[in-house]
Amino acid sequence: MKIGTIKSILVTGILAAMAMVNPAPMLAQQTSTQAPVRQIVVSLEDRKLALIEDGQVKKIYSVAVGKPSTPSPQGTFTIERRVVNPVYRHGDRIVEPGPGNPVGTRWMGLSTKGYGIHGTNEPKSIGKAASHGCIRMGKADLEEFYALVQAGDQVQIVGTRNEQTARLFEPAPMQTTDKPAVQESKAEPAAAPTPAGADAAKFLEPALFTIAVASLR
Questions:
Q1: Quick one: pLDDT band at residue 34, thresholds 50, 70, 90?
Q2: Measuring CA to CA, which residue among 137, 97, 99 is closest to residue 116?
Q3: Which position has the higher pLDDT, 211 or 144?
Q4: Has residue 204 got a pLDDT over 90?
Q5: Is the pTM for the entire model greater than 0.85?
Q6: Does the annotation mark 90 as catalytic?
Q7: Which listed residue (47, 48, 106, 118) is catalytic?
């Protein structure tokens, strides 16, 4: 057997032994690629949806929620189905994908039957209590959100504002700019009032004297 071949076998054996003795680097690499933990919080009172990843708010969206006669369900659910360009079916009505589709271009079905997060063909309803119970999103927001979530992600729908939703959706305080410094204009000193009466004569004496001296030159 050639020396080069022997060296190659020895190196391979040593590396294999090191991997068995110290598997930590491999485990660390697997851990670093672990998917983030996502949570979706919908506030019916605020009509907003927050996407949270690993405890950090990633994005907040305005949504439409159920109207009083057909309220949105409350509780904790999961996303069970994700569909691109869904076909809308309700009773005998069927609407193919397109601009007139009531659920828009994306559907994310929840673990409570008949409810989901989807688009709308009524964009003016966003920000209102206007749906049949589902959570509606505008087209651009919907498609962005759809790409960020997966089946199995938790969805919490909250009816009345609580501490969590108040913290998530409380409007940020208005940024106040510093008031411009008041610049005081440097006023010219006021002219001394012209004396009257006997004092006027005293006031004019120096001037008359100056004129008299000048006339003698």
A1: confident
A2: 137
A3: 144
A4: no
A5: no
A6: no
A7: 118
Q: Which residues pair with 155 in a beta bridge?
A: 40, 77
Using alpha carbons only, give the angle 81, 84, 87 rounded to the nearest 5 degrees.
90
CA distances to 10, 37, 52, 185 from 118, rounded to whole Å, are: 60, 22, 18, 62
Instruction: Give me the catalytic one of 110, 134, 137, 158.
Output: 134
Q: Torsion angle of alpha carbons 115, 118, 122, 123, nearest 10°?
A: 130
Residue 99 bears catalytic tag: no
For residue 182, how far is the Cα from the chain centroid?
Answer: 36
CATH of the domain at 128: 2.40.440.10
Q: How far is CA 77 from CA 10, 42, 80, 153, 154, in A?
A: 56, 11, 9, 9, 6
d(CA 207, CA 199): 14
Q: 15: helix, coil or strand?
A: helix
Q: Which amino acid would we find at residue 193?
A: P
Structural domain boundaries enclosing 129: 38-169
Contact 214, 206 (CB under 8 A): no
In-domain check, residue 217? no
Note whether residue 151 is domain-resident.
yes
Q: How far apart are CA 157 and CA 164, in angstroms?
A: 12
Asked if residue 205 is part of any domain, the answer here is: no
* Number of domains, the chain: 1
